[in-house]
Amino acid sequence: MNVSEAVARRVSVRAFLSRPVPGETVADILLRAAQAPSGGNLQPWRVYALAGAQLAEFKVLAAANPFGEEPEYDVYPPNLWEPFRTRRFQNGEDLYATIGIPREDKPARLRQLAKNAEFFGAPVGLFFCIDRKLGPPQWADLGMYMENVMLLAVERGLDTCPQEYWARYPKTVARFLGLPDDHMVFSGMALGYRDPDHPINTLKARRDAFNLWGELRGFD
Questions:
Q1: Is 146 inside a domain boundary?
Q2: How many CB atoms lie within 10 A of CB 67?
Q3: Domain that holds residue 195
Q4: CATH code assigned at 162
Q5: Beta bridge partners of 162
Q6: Percent of the chain having pLDDT more than 70?
Q7: Mean pLDDT throughout 99-114?
């Protein structure tokens, strides 16, 4: 599999098989992903991988607090504007359409949202953390590291779902991981083997045409 194939195949999977992923596979992916660039080679990522009894214990803690906590940052800006508002709205509608949940069925939509707390059934839960004193450039570096993780997972026949959902649980995650006081959780990620029969995994998020966001200048 080449890089282009991995990029094309990567999607956010929201239904996983219970099939375990070997620890050595997870460790190898996380290590190889550290070839990601970072300004000044700061390598700002701090990563935790949970599986088995550790993951089960954490999920019990999260389930005990279904409404979450005060997040350390806003995943989306308030009063989202165009074209971002429409993109987010359409993606949500496309997602719920795959599993037959209409917009007016709020309880069903909330139940689906709550599956984030189960890592969508994945056997591995990842947490990506960063020193809170670092700034937006280092957050971008962490994002590049996460993208490497996702593409390397695809190469191994695995799938992922990045989850900024866990920004809603800063205290719970920090306590469970024993996170240093100067660090914060940026994102989680579900990792495992996709359920090929679940309709939610048919979703392929739409992408705008190149001419709406890109320009080529000075080329022949």
A1: yes
A2: 5
A3: 3-75+117-205
A4: 3.40.109.10
A5: 189
A6: 100
A7: 91
